Amino acid sequence: MDLKVNDYTTDDDLTVINVEGEIDVYTAPKLREKLIDLVNKGKYHLLVDMEKVEFLDSTGLGVLVGGLKRVRAHDGSLELVCTQERILKIFRITGLTKVFGIFDSVDDAREHRQKQK
Amino acid sequence: MAPETATVELAFSPLPAHVRTARLIATAVARRGGVEETLLDEVRLAVGEACSRAVEAHRKQCPEEPVRVELRDGGDRFVVVVTDRVPDDDPTRSGGTEPVDLTELNGDLNLGFAVIAGLADDVDIASTPSGVEITMSWPVKKD
């Protein structure tokens, strides 16, 4: 299954990236290019919605970490929406739950963002 | 004890697209071999990680050589052996022979081995003169 990556920007300047499919060594470059493209366009507050991600490996994790490093260089943020246990387990194993903000929904992430302003 | 001979052997060109195929085959053989359904996701992910590492190592050093995967069932454990042909490629060492593409994607992290170690029930990584051999195994439920 191919990886589908789409994005939209909310009225509070948060760019939501919907990812659907399998993120692995074959497809991860597509996500990486999307993150780089958004940062190059000045989008520094990113929310990656992973609810439709069926598989995630370490290459995908590396791409997300790379994206986080890029937005932080501009005082930005990269957070995740994920409730799937099989995906969350990978973040826990690698200790990345301490690195990424992980929310149950896009609305939850936006609400958290509003409270921090 | 698992049998010495592989019940399924797979050799594939070191292309990232084939890693998915290896994952699917490993999961199917594990299911047929009696690995618990709750562990199949772990098998799929760990095999994918080991194959991804081997593919990237081959692409840099020996793209004409296939990556080999052995899947052994029929014993107390389901055993997967992923073998590359990159000599002296110590997978736990940073820099040196670290695959370029994977390094570029993963940054300075070595997440693949963290994932394998966290998922496989038993892991052995052997660096030999002919390449690196990653052996992983999971228990098989008894009838």
Automatic annotation (TrEMBL), chain A:
PROSITE patterns referenced in this protein's UniProt entry, alphabetically: STAS (PS50801)
Note the superkingdom of the native organism.
Bacteria
Q: Which InterPro entries match?
A: Anti-sigma_ant, STAS_dom, STAS_dom_sf
Residue span, STAS domain: 4-113
Pfam families named in the record? STAS (PF01740)
PANTHER family on file: ANTI-SIGMA FACTOR ANTAGONIST TM_1081-RELATED, ANTI-SIGMA FACTOR ANTAGONIST TM_1081-RELATED-RELATED
- Give the protein family: Belongs to the anti-sigma-factor antagonist family.
NCBIfam families xref list = ant_ant_sig (TIGR00377)
The molecule here is called Anti-sigma factor antagonist
Species for this entry: Actinoallomurus spadix
Give the source lineage, highest ranks first.
Answer: Bacteria, Bacillati, Actinomycetota, Actinomycetes, Streptosporangiales
TrEMBL record, chain B:
Q: Does the keyword Zinc apply?
A: no
Keyword ATP-binding set for record = yes
Domain Histidine kinase/HSP90-like ATPase, chain residue ranges per copy: 12-138
Give a single Pfam family match.
HATPase_c_2
- Could you state a single Gene Ontology molecular function term? ATP binding
Task: List, alphabetically, the InterPro entries matched.
Answer: Anti-sigma-factor_SerPK, HATPase_C_sf, HATPase_dom
Q: Which UniProt keywords apply?
A: ATP-binding, Kinase, Nucleotide-binding, Serine/threonine-protein kinase, Transferase
- Protein name per Swiss-Prot or TrEMBL: ATP-binding protein
Q: From which organism does this entry originate?
A: Actinoallomurus spadix
